[in-house]
């Protein structure tokens, strides 16, 4: 299956679009046809006027100028390490780490935060929700395709929810629905499938060995 991301990359834009021709590969276009920063990863977002070397040097300068707390968070974060490891050069990895600590989110950090919020909210949803609680959960979920800032992610989620509507009858049902939905997105992005039998361990109870207690 080709991903929504592929559909919207600058690479696949019409060759008649002069702005698309100059965009770096991987830049995602928004509904207005312009580059969409919140839809694109830090790796793929390259400001057209900023030279790569200059940008990296400037950010390193800023880091050593004293924002040590943010720097420590960035350098100790698993996510940042993964981002850095997936980058082609050490300089690019450092630049992405800097962005993760200081810049508005990219599509990946927004996604991580959103999944964390959604899975955690599902993990603490009542076993036997009242009609009002069910209605609130449905409102929350149905608001996402309208409000989620990454437009192609929002459209994609809306289509999924039409095909397979949220199941808010119980905590277990909601957690399972969300896990399946997340796995559909994982598959589309070429990420591994998560074992939904371990969703409580991941998002509520922690591992049996107590390492998160
Ligand atoms: C609604 C939505 C739609 C999105 N659509 C797109 C898109 O179209 N294109 C795009 O590039 N990005 C999209 N994203 C972002 C993308 O899903 C990831 O969040 C991002 O790529 C970062 O991935 P990650 O590997 O850090 O882990 P994430 O996928 O963010 O997952 C975070 C953590 O959740 C756990 N996890 C993974 N899968 C599951 C699961 N099935 N159930 C329970 N827990 C799980 C893992 O422990 C993982 O580390 C979307 C995000 C959301 C919330």
From TrEMBL:
ERV/ALR sulfhydryl oxidase domain residues: 103-203
Signal peptide: none
The protein, known as: Sulfhydryl oxidase
Parts of the chain that traverse the membrane: none
Protein's cellular compartments: Mitochondrion intermembrane space
Keyword Cell wall biogenesis/degradation (UniProt): no
Coiled coil: none
GO molecular function: flavin adenine dinucleotide binding; flavin-dependent sulfhydryl oxidase activity
Start and end residues of each stretch annotated as Disordered: 1-35, 47-70
The organism of origin for this protein: Russula ochroleuca
UniProt key word Hydrolase: no
Record's GO cellular component terms: mitochondrial intermembrane space
Co-factor requirement: FAD
Keyword line: Disulfide bond, FAD, Flavoprotein, Mitochondrion, Oxidoreductase
Catalysed reactions listed for this entry: 2 R'C(R)SH + O2 = R'C(R)S-S(R)CR' + H2O2
A Pfam family this chain is assigned to: Evr1_Alr
InterPro entries: ALR/ERV (IPR039799), ERV/ALR_sulphydryl_oxid_sf (IPR036774), ERV/ALR_sulphydryl_oxidase (IPR017905)
E.C. designation(s): 1.8.3.2
């Amino acid at each position: 299956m080709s991903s929504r991301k592929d559909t919207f990359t600058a690479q696949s834009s019409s060759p008649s679009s002069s702005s698309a021709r100059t965009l770096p590969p991987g830049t995602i276009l928004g509904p207005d046809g312009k580059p969409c920063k919140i839809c694109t990863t830090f790796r793929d977002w390259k400001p057209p006027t900023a030279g790569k070397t200059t940008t990296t040097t400037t950010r390193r300068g800023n880091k050593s100028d004293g924002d040590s707390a943010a720097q420590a968070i960035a350098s100790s974060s698993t996510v940042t390490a993964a981002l850095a490891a997936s980058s082609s050069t050490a300089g690019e990895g450092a630049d992405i780490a800097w962005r993760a600590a200081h810049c508005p989110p990219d599509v990946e950090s927004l996604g991580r935060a959103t999944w964390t919020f959604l899975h955690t909210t599902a993990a603490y949803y009542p076993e036997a929700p009242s009609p009002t609680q069910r209605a609130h959960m449905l409102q929350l979920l149905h608001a996402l395709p309208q409000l989620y800032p990454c437009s192609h992610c929002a459209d994609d989620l809306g289509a999924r929810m039409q095909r397979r509507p949220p199941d808010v009858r119980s905590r277990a049902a909601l957690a399972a629905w969300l896990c399946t939905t997340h796995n559909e997105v994982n598959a589309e992005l070429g990420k591994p499938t998560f074992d939904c039998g371990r969703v409580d361990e991941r998002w509520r109870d922690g591992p049996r060995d107590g390492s998160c207690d």
